[in-house]
Design brief:
The chain contains ten helices and three strands, in the order H-H-H-H-H-H-H-H-H-E-E-E-H. A hairpin with a 6-residue loop joins strand 1 and strand 2. Helix 3 packs across helix 7 and helix 7 crosses helix 8. By secondary structure, the chain is mostly helical.
Length: about 240
């Protein structure tokens, strides 16, 4: 069954939100059509999502390269991964309330939580591809800068989970996953101390000590990120 195209009213509202009037409305229709509607492959957003992901990555990488001029390759990779994640894209979709325009089958309409977050994120990537195809790179870049520039600036002072950041950095730089081992457990049961070492092939290991295994892993990951220049040490340390 072929999904109905967006109404003229919906298109007008979307173009106002996005800040671009489409010369070819089919791109807008496709960007908001989920495969669950039963539409043919060429009429849903799956292919657009693939292209939009690459356009978003290019524009955000260019933004980070120009904004953080002294950042290392590792730090830029971590920032990029954070900014183009499904979570970040879904936040943009929520900011624009794009869920009001997504056309899905009945099964998808019932989804909530993380799976629905991925649908909203996919639509944002598809929309970026639609902008690129209809108006060129500058049309897509204008939209991306409008909604990612402030996010990129905020990311400068916001540290995420250290183990997650270290894993993303290690994957980006070496294609490898960090490994952790417990070297020692000392102290009484009510006040234990765990010593943990993190290793990434290609760089020197780091050690962390804290009252739980997970906390010690976080300390070790933080020390490696700071030593490798991915994170800056807090002032005064």
């Amino acid at each position: 069954m072929k999904a109905k195209a967006l109404s003229a009213e919906d298109r007008g509202q979307l173009e106002k939100l996005i800040g671009h009037e489409f010369a070819d409305k089919q791109w807008l229709d496709r960007a908001f059509t989920h495969a669950s509607t039963g539409s043919a492959k060429g009429a849903n957003y799956e292919r657009l999502e693939f292209l939009g992901d690459r356009v978003l990555g290019l524009c955000v990488a260019d933004l980070l390269f120009k904004t953080f001029r002294s950042a290392t390759e590792g730090e830029l990779s971590v920032r990029l991964n954070q900014l183009v994640s499904a979570e970040s894209c879904a936040h943009v979709a929520d900011e624009l309330e794009l869920h009001r325009f997504i056309r899905t089958g009945a099964d998808v309409k019932k989804l909530t939580g993380k799976r629905m977050m991925n649908v909203r994120a996919d639509v944002v990537e598809s929309l970026i591809a639609a902008l690129y195809l209809d108006g060129g790179l500058e049309a897509a870049r204008g939209f991306i800068l409008r909604y990612w520039e402030s996010r990129a600036a905020r990311a400068d002072g916001a540290r995420r989970d250290a183990k997650t950041e270290l894993q993303e950095w290690a994957h980006a730089k070496f294609g490898l996953t960090p490994s952790y081992r417990i070297d020692d457990r000392s102290g009484p049961d009510h006040d234990p101390r765990f010593t943990v070492t993190v290793e990434v092939p290609g760089v020197a290991p780091e050690t962390g000590v804290d009252r739980s295994k997970r906390a010690a892993e976080q300390v070790a990951a933080t020390r490696m990120l700071e030593r490798e220049g991915v994170w800056q040490k807090p002032a005064g340390e």
